[in-house]
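Private note to self, pasted from the team thread so I don't lose it. C-alpha cells:
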C-alpha cells in the first residue's frame, strides 16, 4: 500500500459549503480505507498531519493499530482536520509486532509513552492492539461493536433492563465472559454499550483501561451505593461531584493528590433529567473503597467520610472517574441508594431483591435520557476543554 496525501485546502467547496462537506467526507473515507489496508498488510499505519495554522506544533506524526475498530472516530477527526486546512498523509510504518514478540511487552508500557506530550493519538499501536484484543476476551464481543456511549454497571438487573429496552441488542458470543457487554447500535456508532463489570475497583480499572482506546464520547457508572446522609432514602439518587479515592488501584499512576471530578456538562444534563422527573437526588463526594466489608473495620473509613463530607459509599465510581480523567474521556456517575449502613438499614437479601425490581428500569432510563440529550446538543461529542491540559493529543480534542 503506497502512501496517500490529501490537503484540506485543495478540496472543493468552503468550510460551510455542502460541496465542501461532501468532499471532506469522501477524502476522510479514502484516508480511512488506506489506514485499514495498511493494517491488513501487517504494518502499523502512520499518519502525518501538517497544520499550517500552528506556530508551535505544525507537524504531528503518529502510529496506530486496527483503525477499523474506531472508524467512526477517525472519520470524524479526519474531517475536522481537513476542514481546518490540514494536509494529511497516510503511509505504512513499522512491521506490526505479534503479541508473543518479546519487544511487544516493552512497547505496551505507558510509562515509556509520554501521555502528556502533544501527539496524534493518546496510545501507541501496541497498547491499542492489546486493548482491542482484551476487550473481546473480557466482554465476549468484538471491539468494533462498541458504541460511542458506554455505561458501566455491577448488577445483572441493569443488563435485564437494558435488554428489555433493546431486545435486539448484540450480546456476548459466549457465556463464560468476565465482563459481558451488550450493544444497542445506532448510525455512526452513536448508540449505547452496557458493560457488566462486576464488583470492585480492579474490574472497573480493567474495563476502562481497554475501553479508553476506543475514544468513547461518554463513560457513565450506573451502580448502587450506601447512603451516608440522614435524609437520604432507599431509592434516592446520587450524582457524584467528587470522589474520595480509597480504592487504591490507580494510586501509582494517578496520585490521590490529583483532584478528580466528573465532567461538568454531563453532570448538568444528568441533574436536569433528574429534576424533570421529580426524582430525589443529592450531589456530593462519593467514597470508593476496595473493601466490600468496610463496616467490619469502620473507624478510619468513617473518619474519612465525615472529614470529606461524603454522601455515599461504593466500590467502582472513583475508579471509572479516575481513568476517565487519565484518558480524557467525559464521564459521570449516577448511583442509586440501596442501603444506609449508618442508619440501621443494611443491605439484606429480601429487601434488596424488592428494591432491585422496582428501581432497575428507572435508573437506566435516566441515564439513557441523559445520553439522548448529549446526542442532541453535542452530536460530535462533548467538548473536552475541561478534561485536557495545554499539551494534549490532537485527535480526540475538539
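Design output:
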Amino acid at each position: 500500500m503506497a502512501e496517500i496525501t490529501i490537503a484540506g485546502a485543495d478540496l472543493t467547496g468552503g468550510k460551510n459549503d455542502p460541496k465542501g462537506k461532501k468532499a471532506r467526507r469522501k477524502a476522510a473515507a479514502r484516508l480511512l480505507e488506506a489506514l485499514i489496508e495498511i493494517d491488513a498488510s501487517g504494518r502499523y499505519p502512520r499518519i502525518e498531519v501538517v497544520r499550517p495554522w500552528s506556530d508551535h506544533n505544525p507537524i504531528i506524526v503518529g502510529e496506530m493499530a486496527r483503525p477499523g475498530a474506531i472508524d467512526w472516530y477517525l472519520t470524524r477527526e479526519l474531517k475536522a482536520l481537513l476542514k481546518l486546512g490540514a494536509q494529511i498523509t497516510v503511509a505504512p510504518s513499522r512491521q506490526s509486532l505479534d503479541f508473543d514478540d518479546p519487544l511487544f511487552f516493552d512497547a505496551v508500557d505507558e510509562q515509556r509513552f509520554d501521555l502528556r506530550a502533544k501527539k496524534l493519538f493518546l496510545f501507541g499501536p501496541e497498547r491499542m492492539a492489546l486493548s482491542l484484543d482484551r476487550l473481546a476476551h473480557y466482554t465476549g464481543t468484538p471491539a468494533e461493536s462498541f458504541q460511542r456511549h458506554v455505561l458501566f454497571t455491577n448488577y445483572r438487573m441493569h443488563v435485564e433492563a437494558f435488554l428489555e429496552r433493546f431486545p435486539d441488542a448484540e450480546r456476548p458470543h459466549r457465556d463464560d465472559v468476565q465482563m459481558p457487554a451488550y450493544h444497542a447500535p445506532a448510525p455512526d456508532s452513536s448508540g449505547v454499550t452496557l458493560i457488566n463489570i462486576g464488583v470492585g475497583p480492579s474490574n472497573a480499572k480493567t474495563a476502562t483501561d481497554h475501553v479508553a482506546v476506543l475514544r468513547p464520547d461518554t463513560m457513565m457508572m450506573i451502580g448502587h451505593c450506601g447512603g451516608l446522609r440522614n435524609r437520604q432514602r432507599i431509592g434516592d439518587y446520587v450524582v457524584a461531584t467528587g470522589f474520595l479515592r480509597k480504592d487504591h488501584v490507580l494510586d501509582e499512576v494517578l496520585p490521590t493528590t490529583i483532584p478528580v471530578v466528573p465532567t461538568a456538562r454531563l453532570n448538568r444534563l444528568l441533574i436536569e433529567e433528574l429534576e424533570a422527573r421529580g426524582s430525589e437526588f443529592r450531589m456530593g463526594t462519593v467514597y470508593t473503597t476496595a473493601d466490600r466489608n468496610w463496616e467490619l473495620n469502620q473507624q478510619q473509613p468513617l473518619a474519612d467520610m465525615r472529614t470529606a463530607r461524603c454522601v455515599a459509599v461504593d466500590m467502582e465510581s472513583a475508579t471509572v472517574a479516575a481513568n476517565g480523567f487519565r484518558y480524557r474521556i467525559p464521564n459521570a456517575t449516577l448511583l442509586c441508594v440501596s442501603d444506609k449502613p449508618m442508619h440501621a438499614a443494611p443491605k439484606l437479601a429480601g429487601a434488596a431483591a424488592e428494591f432491585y425490581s422496582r428501581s432497575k428500569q428507572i435508573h437506566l432510563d435516566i441515564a439513557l435520557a441523559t445520553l439522548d440529550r448529549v446526542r442532541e446538543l453535542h452530536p460530535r461529542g462533548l467538548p473536552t476543554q475541561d478534561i485536557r491540559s495545554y499539551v494534549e493529543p490532537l485527535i480526540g480534542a475538539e
